């Protein structure tokens, strides 16, 4: 078998680098799930590799699944028959948080040297401050 190197796979404008030898992909799914991601499957298809089993973790194989359930699983006893320590049985109350009335305060506090700005009216007709279009006396209204 020839040594495998990293292969680039493009999904739209995004480039992913897949290395089948190390079982890695730059998207991270191949390493995390330990099963070939979509980019690794594309590389396997390009190389005409039929089986994905050598590139999958042993946890996904049939033997691992049957070994998981080989031991018998005992059902839980009734809740009143449980043997539990007192620290677990005590009732945990929610925190005593009271919502304050009114609108919540802004989280950001301004610095003392920060300039305080106030909004002043600006007329849409003459462009001067202190009044608006309705109360403008610069242009007479046609009645």
TrEMBL record:
Keyword Metal-binding: yes
Highest taxon, organism lineage: Eukaryota
Keywords recorded for this protein, A-Z: Metal-binding, Zinc, Zinc-finger
PANTHER family in alphabetical order: POLYPROTEIN, PUTATIVE-RELATED, PROTEIN FAR1-RELATED SEQUENCE 5-LIKE
Annotated SWIM-type domain residues: 16-48
Sequence ranges assigned to domain CCHC-type in this UniProt record: 123-136
Name of the protein in question: SWIM-type domain-containing protein
Gene Ontology molecular functions: nucleic acid binding; zinc ion binding
